[in-house]
Amino acid sequence: MKISVSYLSSKYAKEATIKLIEKTSADYLHVDLMDGGFVPTKNFTIPEVLDLLENHKKPLDIHLMVFDPIIYIDDLAKLEPKYITFHVEATKDIVKTIEKIRKYNIGVGLSIKPNTDLYELMPYLSLIDLVLIMSVEPGAGGQEFIPSSTDRLKELIEFRFQNNLSFQIEMDGGINADTIKLVPDLDIAVSGSFICKSDDYQEKIDELKNFK
After folding, report:
1. Would residue 178 show up in a list of annotated catalytic residues for this protein?
2. Does the annotation count 151 as an active-site position?
């Protein structure tokens, strides 16, 4: 299992948090971008994001919690991220947005809120590289893991197997040393406050990677 670390909820400023993450064995830097429309909070402008992440060392795992995600792709592509993930609920132009991301040879992710039916994803699973299951309501760090997320993971794994697909499955929300044990078959776990509000980032990452 790979670990993607979100700097959204931390004891430190964004710049300091990112530097600490980049000193660890984390596999990805998870970038949560919120527009204040799709979710209540706005936490970025494009110039801020480009400046903050210009010299990143970890592969970027960008999660767009925004309406009309397609309008951000040209700018975010300058950062050469590993993945750009957007929400199935956030646009009517899902295929067009997938194609736009793919044009830049960036991995395409689709995310889904806890109360959205998984069948909303089904038409697109052969077109994408990643599914991000939200195990909390998107928009704020530090929430508790929603237990029914484990059923969604099992259903997606089964669908992937039955249809011979290869998308990665990622989960974001309330992931810590206890909840990680509930999702051992996950490909990528996103963790934020569990790591970034601790005094030893590497120790917390080790707990996640070496759970029993």
Report:
1. no
2. no
